[in-house]
Amino acid sequence: MIKVVLIRHGQSQYNLENKFTGWKDVDLSKNGIQEAQKAGEILHQHEYVFDIAYTLVLKRAIKTLWEVLDKTDLTWLPVYKSWKLNERHYGALQGLNKAKMAEKYGEEQVHTWRRSMHVRPPALEKTDPGYEISDPKYKDLKADEFPLTENLADTSARVLQYWKETIVPALQQQQRIVISSHGNTIRALVQYLDNLSAEEVTGLNIPTGRPLVYELDDQLNPIKHYYLEKNS
Domain range spanning residue 24? Predict the structure, then answer.
């Protein structure tokens, strides 16, 4: 049996402030750091050991992984980072308050932007100061790879490409893997692994800082999945 652990980063400052985050590189909140530490403690308590860790290029996921590896005494572990595991790009909504956007555009429209597989939020203008293409962490992206907005299907396509090309070969070699990522990234993986419909994934919520374990057979088909809890 093969196991892979998925962890959504701890609460970020924008989570706390109820803002659209996307590719904005915001830090963990104080509570988010505690959530990440607790995730590591739970994994340590359940005696989880890993061979490889995967994350992305945004600090809230990276710092969550740091805390997990520290609490499991695995800070020496090889860590691979890819923008393809980044959170969904929320376009022009990034940095804006969700409640205020609901007042402006209506709750139904904002819910559609957040949850629809195929509807994209308004695109970010290339002249916007928040356009991240000049950020050195994205220097290897081709111009046509850099998003101005994404729907869940766009996010899923890049996440699953990385899963199939990079993570699956490691799993096939019986490597024990932990992935620190984002809500929509993990939703894409859960939808793929559990063969969920677009309607089913719309209502799927991934909590922050809780280790989600998938047990897979030798063909990497899911046997079961569950959230690890702290033993009393």
Answer: 2-227
In a domain, 43, yes or no: yes
Residue linked to tokens 């996440």: 159
Indicate whether 45 belongs to any domain: yes
Q: Which of 9, 35, 89, 150 is catalytic?
A: 9
Backbone angles phi, psi at 227, to 5 degrees: -90, 135
The active-site residue, picked from 87, 89, 132, 182, is 87
pLDDT interval class at 16 (50, 70, 90): very high
- Would you call 87 a catalytic residue per the annotation? yes
Amino acid type, 10: G
Q: What is the CATH number of the domain that holds 132?
A: 3.40.50.1240
Q: Using CA atoms, how far apart are residues 165 and 155, in angstroms rounded to an integer?
A: 16
Give the Cα separation of 93 and 89 in Å (integer): 9
User: Is 46 part of the annotated catalytic residue set?
Assistant: no
Can you tell me the distance from the alpha carbon of 65 to that of 226, in angstroms, rounded to the nearest whole number?
A: 19
Does this model's pTM top 0.85? My answer is yes
Whether 73 contacts 44, CB under 8 Å = yes
CA of residue 227 relative to chain centroid, distance: 16
